[in-house]
Amino acid sequence: MHYGARRPALHPLTMSEPYLFHFSEDPSIEVFEPRPVRMPAERPPGQDWLNGPLIWAIDAWHAPMYFFPRDCPRVLLWRRPDTTDADLDHW
Is the separation of the CB atoms in 60 and 18 below 8 Å? Predict the structure, then answer.
C-alpha cells in the first residue's frame, strides 16, 4: 500500500481548536462528575490541583485510542515528522 500525496496531515486539529471528548461505556451518564484521584502523586509547585477531583478528557487527535471497548486489545500508530515512506508502506 502506498499513500503517495494523499497522506493525512500529521495533526488534523491544533490547540487553537479546543475540542475535548469524554468516552464512556455507560450510555446513561448525563453529567460527568469529577472523580477523586485514587493515588495522588507528588507534584511540582502550582500543579497540586492535579491530585484533586478530575474529569479525564482527551483531544480529537487522541480520540481513536478510545474508539474500541476498554477490554479490546489495540495497537495504534501515529505518523511522526521523521516517519519515512518505507515506514508507512511497512505499517
Answer: no
